Structure formats: C-alpha cells, structure tokens
C-alpha cells in the first residue's frame, strides 16, 4: 500500500493490516522473492534483518551500532538486545556479515 501510494510510511506503522504476511517462501508454487544486486568487496559490513528490528529502533541508531567497529557477533547481540528492550513487539531476526577476501 505504501509502494502504491495509498498510505504513507507513517500511516503504515499503525495500519490494521501492518502485520499481514503478503508473501512467504514455501507457500506458493513459484515464490517471487525480492532480489537486489549489491556490489560487494572486502571490508563491507552487511546487516540483513526483519522489520522486527527496524520497527523498534531508529535507522540512525542502527547505523551508529553497525559502524561502531565492534565484532559482527557483538553488533548483532547489541541490536537484538536493544530491539527487545524497546518492546520487541514482533519477531526480531538479524544477521551481521563482515566480508573478507577469499
């Protein structure tokens, strides 16, 4: 609905259908996952997460912790703890990846 311009992102946060799952792998014969091509190189850190994280923590707060220089494991734990402490109203799923030369 946000992508279609029907409601704003702010309105989506409190919309009655905000937690409705619209797509899931394993329930359709031909799932259509979202795919992005991202140029990768050694030294990049990636955060892959569910909306359970981003609904609880502000983007600037997440960015600050992801770029603070702590290990991937410590960063992931800090983000998880913060999301749960903020209320954890949805499942919080995340992975922090540090890319290195092969």
From TrEMBL:
Q: Which PROSITE patterns match?
A: PPM_2
Entry superkingdom:
Bacteria
| Residue ranges of domain PPM-type phosphatase in the record | 1-99
Question: InterPro entries this protein is in?
Answer: PPM-type-like_dom_sf, PPM-type_phosphatase-like_dom
Pfam families attached to this UniProt entry? SpoIIE
Per its UniProt record, what SUPFAM superfamilies does this chain match? PP2C-like (SSF81606)
The protein depicted here goes by the name PPM-type phosphatase domain-containing protein
Organism, scientific name: Arenivirga flava
